[in-house]
Every structure is written in structure tokens, then in C-alpha cells.
Amino acid sequence: MDAKELLEKYAAGQRNFQGAVLANVDLRNTDLIEIDLSNTDLIGANFKGADLSKANLTEAIINGTDFSKACLTAANFSKVNGKEIWWKRELQQPSANFSGANLSSVNLSEANLGSANLSHANLDKANLSNANLSNAKLREVSLVGADLSNSTLSNVDFSGVSLVGADLSRANLQGVNFQKANLQDAKLQAVNLKNFNLSGLNLAGTDLAGANLTQANLRQSSLQRANLERAVLQGADLRKANLKETNLTRADLTDATTYGWLIEDADFSRAIMPDGEVYKPIAPEAEIGKQETSLEKVISMTRKVINTENAPAPVGPYNQAIAASGQFVFVAGQIAIDPRLGDVVYTDDVKKQTEQVIANLQAILTASGATFQDVVKTTVFLADMNDFAAVNAVYAKYFPEDTAPARACVQVSRLPKDVLVEIDAIAVISG
């Protein structure tokens, strides 16, 4: 059947063209709303700019078919075959072309679209479940609310793509690139994201229940309100990630890198923590101190991690401070890093370095509900004992002799970042 015959019959009211052979037919810019082309041979056909809204193309053969800039809203393309055709290493037919097409609410379930061109297409709320989209081109495509569950997406480049609210649960994501993609409120249940680079991504509200995120890079990503229940995060990089209000119930965080993460109101119930211990909530969960703090429930029943943005983030495997049993506060050694700059200040001035160290100590003590008056023990580490008098003069302004805590002072061969002084502290919160 040629284009002229089809258009005449369509104009006469016929809509059923099931099983027709329409290979290489030219139907550009035609109006074919609600046409039934199921089981048809459309190899090499040209539907560029055509209106196929609500059309039925179930199980049609669309290798090399051009649907670019066509309107395909609510059309049924389930089980179509539009992948490349090769013969003896030579390309016989290219994959289907949907570039710039409107595919909103289209049904592409179980479609075979390997290497298909979907660049700039609108696939909002489309059904792509169980479809094969391996190596497909999806540059600047929109997949808001799309169903990609159980689909094969190997080697797809989703960089910059909007996947807000999309369902990728149990999809094959081997070799997928998510850089700069927006996955807010998306579903990725039980997916394999081992070793994936997800740094800096918007994953707020994303459902990653049961996902494999072993050694994934989630540094500085937004996972606020995300669901990571039973997710495997062994060895994952969570530095400076936002996990506020995130569900981490029964998640496995063994050996994860976590310093600088934000975990206010996160749920770690029965989770395996980075140290390999199962998390147990502290009772009662009363807030320490009278001001807003970042006192997090991290390690175990007997300890709480103190973390504040007003002091330098740890630069190694330690925390700013630990409140033990809700009474003792163990403040890690502080050096002259300005938390606003994230770097050492006053590299050649031991007095000014000491002032910065004291400011960092004070910020952490305040975050834990303590003051200098609650400090019971300090240790001063000096790169050069000849600086003791200068350091002591600054130190004495904050710890008067009559109430000063016990102290040790030692010279060491070298301090972190080659600073001149480091001080740690132990405090007991009164009452």
C-alpha cells in the first residue's frame, strides 16, 4: 500500500490498517489521529511532523522509521521493534528516529528501541517499562513521571536529563551516565549503582530502597528525605552529602566515608554504621544544649557525634567531638582552619593560630551544650616548644588559673597541614 491509497482510505473514514506493508512510505506532516497500524511493516517509513495521537502501532516494525517532530501523544507503541539491523557487520537499517517528537503519555512498554534516537523528545509520563533502550540517544529529553521500571538502559547518557518522579526500579543501568541529571522524587528501588558517580546530584525524595550503592560516589549530593531502607552503601563516599530526614533503616554503611555529611533527623534504625556496629537509638533523645545544633545520632547507644559548621569539618577519620553517655564531650584536636575558608590561616603567626584554634573549640563546645567552664582536660601540641609562652598567653584569656582544666603540653615533630599548634579538649556537661 502506498501513501496515496492509505490517505484516501483514511479520509473516507477507515482507521484499521493492521498488518499492512507500508515500508518506505512517505507520510510526512499528515494527520493520522487514532489510526491503527498494529503489526504493520513500517521499515524506512517517514512520519516526520505527522500527527499520530492515540494511534495504535502495537508490534509494528519500525526499523529506520522517522518519527522526528511527530505528535505521538497517548499512542500505543508497545512491543514495537525499532533497533538497528546489521548484516555481516554492515548496517542495513538504522534504529527508529524520535528526535524532537512529542511522546507524552505514550505506551512503549516492551518496545525494542536499542540505539534509537530520542534526543529532544518529550517523554513525560510515558510508559517504557520492560523496554530495551540500550545505547539509545536521550540528549535533552524530558522523562518527568515516566515509567522505566525493569527496562534495559545500558550505556544511556542521562546527563542533564529531567527524571523527576520517574520510576527506574529494577532497571538495568549498566554504564549509564547520570551526571547533572535531576532525579528528585524518582524511584530506583533495587537498582545496581555500584561504583556509580552520583556526586552533586539532586536525589531529594528519591526512593532507593534496596539499591546497591557499594562504593558509589555520593559526595555533596542531596539525599534529603530520600528512602535508603536496606540500601547497601558499603564504602560509599558520603562526604558533605545532605541526608537530612533520610530513611536509612537497615542500610549497610560499613566503611562509608561520612565526614561532613548532614544527617539531622535521619533514621538509622538497625542500620550498620561505618564502624561496622549496628546503630541503636539513644534514649532519651533530648537535644543537648539550648540552641540549634547539629548533634547527630551516629555511632551507638553510648555516644553522640557533635558536628557544627562553625568549626572546620574533619579532614580524616574522626569527628569534631563525641558526647559520651550524654555527659562527657570529647573534642578532637583543633587546628587553625577557618571554617568559612576551609583552609589554614595565619601560617606564620602562632598567636593568631591559637586564637583560631580556641574559636574552633568554642564552636564545638557550644554545639554540644558545653562552655569553657565545663572543660576538664586539654592537650596542647606544639611544633616548637619555644612557642609555648605565646600560646599560653592566648590560652589563659579563656581558661583563668582558678578554674583552668588539667592540661598536657607536648612538642611533636610535625602537625597536620604543618600548623604551629593543635589543642584537644574533654568537657563534662553539668547537670
Give the C-level CATH assignment of the domain at 1-145: Mainly Beta
CATH superfamily of the domain at 1-145: E3 ubiquitin-protein ligase SopA
Strand order of the largest sheet: 3-4-5-6-11-9-10
Fraction of residues in helices?
Answer: under 10%
| β-strand amount | 5-15%
Radius of gyration over C-alpha positions, nearest whole angstrom: 31 Å
Q: List low-confidence stretches.
A: 282-303
Q: Which descriptor suits the 3D outline?
A: elongated
Description:
The chain has 431 residues and is mostly beta strands. Among the domains are: 1-145, Pectate Lyase C-like (3 Solenoid), CATH 2.160.20; 328-428, 60s Ribosomal Protein L30, Chain: A (2-Layer Sandwich). It is 8% helix and 13% strand. It contains three helices and eleven strands.
Briefly characterize the structure.
With 431 residues, the chain is mostly beta strands.
